[in-house]
Write a structure and sequence with these properties.
The complex is a heterodimer of chains A (207) and B (230). Chain A is built from ten helices and two strands, in the order ααααααααββαα. By secondary structure, chain A is mostly helical. Chain A has one domain. The relative contact order of chain A is 0.18. Chain B has one domain. Chain B is built from six helices and eight strands. Chain B has a six-stranded antiparallel sheet with strand order 2-1-3-4-5-6. A two-stranded parallel sheet of chain B has the order 7-8. In chain B, a hairpin with a 4-residue loop joins strand 1 and strand 2. Classes of the chains: A mainly alpha (207), B alpha+beta (230). Chains A and B meet through helix 4 and helix 5 of A and helix 1 of B.
Chain lengths: 207, 230
């Protein structure tokens, strides 16, 4: 893989992370991260949708009439999201029930439209695909980290299995019910941003 | 060809929409059988929950076949009629005139005693509610319950599908001492009602609670002729 493509794929994981640096897709990050499993499924779904819609739009980029550009993008994204939703209903029914409307809301996830406008319309299919996978991964990564901490501290489980030993509960440890509620997702995301910015000087604003 | 001409734009949009429609129709058709199976298993699990039997996706069918010994439909006079009680869509039935409605009854055999599982439909704050109520063999006392919803508020109204809410119904009676049908009321936590059994609603989920209350009353009332028949 050329160094340029590598950058396209891996930059969204750190320096150009869609959630922690560009502040996109926060809404769904709150909603689906109270448990680890839906967070992972949502991550995979977004990776699939961003990557495939990037490829489709990149292939069509020289034919799309400028005036209906956004409509074409929306139709492509909506079609892909519907396919993902149907596939989940067929093969991961319980998770699809948990995620319910949030899969449909991938259509309005700013990351998807953002990548189509900013990247897919001006690049060849392969880089567009890598860009989509990269941004999807960047989003999924944050979702998984948030989901991990929220499920661990909020329910004492991971993937539904208890990981905090009973002994700890006996000496007075309790699950933090607040972790299950949406605001804690924001606070966990904020902690990730804090850690990331204190490590990466380039991200810090200069006053 | 001029990409910005009206003709080009129109043709482009039409072709794209037709293509997308074909792709979506194809996906939907191919995945339909698998989805229908998942939905059936999900329904079986809800029915099993209403007779206090825990199940997983893997063993739901087996448990259902073992425990549900009889299924039939009843009409508005409480008489048995033929039909597939598992497949009947209660929402469709409720659109018909009362005399033409058929209600599903599933009979479960739990260690030798018969339980009657009744099906309910109602409306919550954001969308439909549904539930299964199982009655003891006296057809008066609630043996178990399970509730579901399409889109109630998570953490508030959506709590009705949690076991703690459904389990509060166990042992409640839907007829009072005199034998009049009263249903079971949902009340604000801490309140009481006279003359009938009640369970606590969910704080912050008042309208969903009222929906469940109304669903229980109208849903169980429809079964009254059947329940009071000797």
């Amino acid at each position: 893989m050329s160094p340029k493509n590598k950058l396209i794929l891996f930059n969204p994981l750190s320096k150009e992370n869609p959630v922690t640096v560009q502040m996109l897709g926060i809404c769904s990050a709150l909603a689906v991260t109270s448990k680890l499993e839906p967070a992972i499924v949502m991550g995979i779904s977004v990776i699939a949708v961003v990557a495939l819609s990037n490829v489709v739009i990149s292939l069509l980029r020289n034919t799309i009439p400028g005036r209906i550009r956004i409509i074409v993008q929306l139709v492509v994204v909506a079609a892909l999201v519907t396919v993902v939703n149907e596939v989940l209903k067929a093969f991961a029914y319980d998770v699809s029930k948990q995620l319910s409307v949030f899969i449909g809301l991938i259509i309005t996830n700013c990351i998807v439209m953002g990548r189509l406008e900013a990247f897919a319309l001006g690049n060849k299919p392969l880089p567009a695909f890598l860009d989509g996978v990269g941004n999807g991964l960047g989003y999924a990564l944050i979702l998984i980290v948030v989901g991990f901490f929220r499920e661990l501290l909020g329910s004492g489980t991971l993937f539904g299995f208890q990981v905090i030993p009973d002994k700890l509960y006996e000496i007075g440890y309790e699950n933090n019910g607040l972790m299950i509620l949406p605001p804690m997702a924001l606070i966990v995301v904020a902690c990730i941003i804090w850690i990331q910015r204190s490590k990466d000087k380039e991200l810090q604003e200069k006053n | 060809m001029n990409k910005d001409s009206n003709i080009y734009t129109l043709i482009y949009a039409s072709v794209m929409v037709i293509l997308v429609a074909l792709i979506l129709a194809y996906t939907s058709e191919t995945l339909r059988p698998q989805q229908a199976k998942n939905e059936a298993i999900d329904k079986m699990r809800q029915i099993l929950t209403s007779i206090n039997v825990e199940s997983t996706n893997a063993n739901a069918e087996e448990l259902y076949d073992k425990l549900i010994v009889d299924t039939y439909l009843i009409n508005s006079q409480g008489n048995k009629v033929d039909g597939n009680a598992f497949a009947v869509e209660l929402t469709e039935e409720l659109r018909k005139p009362i005399e033409e409605r058929n209600y599903p009854v599933l009979v479960a055999d739990i260690e030798g005693s018969l339980k009657y599982v009744l099906s309910l439909r109602g409306a919550g704050l954001w969308g439909p509610l549904w539930g299964f109520i199982s009655l003891d063999d006296d057809k008066k006392t609630i043996y178990g319950a399970s509730f579901g919803h399409a889109g109630e508020t998570p953490g508030l109204g959506a709590e009705i599908e949690k076991p703690f809410f459904a389990q509060a119904f166990i042992g409640k009676r839907i007829f009072n001492q005199e034998g009049t049908f009263t249903s079971v009321a949902i009340v604000k936590p801490g309140r009481t009602v006279q003359g009938k059994d009640y369970v606590d609603g969910i704080s912050g989920g008042t309208i969903t609670g009222q929906g469940v209350d109304a669903m229980l009353f109208s849903g169980l009332e429809a079964y009254k002729p059947f329940l009071t028949k000797e």
